[in-house]
Amino acid sequence: MANKVFLHADEVAAELGVSKAYAYKLIRVLNSDLRKQGFITINGRVSSQYFKEKLYGNNAGGGKGEKDVSIQGR
Fold it and tell me: Model confidence over 40-52: pLDDT tens digits?
């Protein structure tokens, strides 16, 4: 994943190995969380920094702090 400020759904899908539809769903969830924190979001894109933190933990892919990212029931 390149050093981009925002990721598009196709990039999220490729990174996680999921469908583009699921990537859009995940982006909506992440952006909803960001809006609740007072951040401005862009539909269909997610902050690459926030994406990495939420999926890989604070060390962005170092293997520690990985969490379940299931969004069922949202």
Answer: 999 999 999 999 9
Query: Domain map of the chain by residue range?
Result: 6-45
Determine the distance from the C-alpha atom of residue 59 to the mean position of all C-alpha atoms in its chain, rounded to a whole number.
15
User: pLDDT tens digits, residue range 11-70?
Assistant: 999 999 999 999 999 999 999 999 999 999 999 999 999 999 999 887 654 544 444 555
Q: What are the E-state strand segments in 1-74? A: 6-8, 45-47
H or E element that contains 25:
helix 20-36
Diameter over CA atoms, the chain: 31
Which residues are CB-neighbours of 40 under 8 A, at least 6 positions away? none
Q: The tokens 């939420």 sit on which residue?
A: 54
Asked whether 30 and 51 are in contact (CB, 8 A), the reply is: yes
